[in-house]
Model the fold of this input.
Amino acid sequence: MNNKVVKQDPTTQRESFSELLGQLAKNSAAVVHNEIQLVIQRISETVKAVRSGVLIIVTGVVISFAAVMCLCAALIIGLISYMPPIIAALVTGVVLALVSVVIAFIGYRQLKE
Done:
């Protein structure tokens, strides 16, 4: 049996340790950079999805507003046979105002809770 003792030079060991620390620092920086890029990409995808959803909701609200206006006009035209046109328009406006105040009050109470 041949027992050879290999002597390691302490300066070589220090250099390799410092090289390992340098590689670790570079790899850590790369991982952090990649994670940041991934978070940015996820946020971008989320913003795109939210933007398209909001656009669809706004379109629906605009169409609903037009439908309510048409229904109001039909109500006023229907009421003209029972009362003067100005009174029919005022009655319709007052009823819609009362409905909107009730809805706003309900929403306010829910937000307050």
Observations:
- The chain has one domain: 16-112.
- Residues 43 and 49 are 10 Å apart (CA to CA).
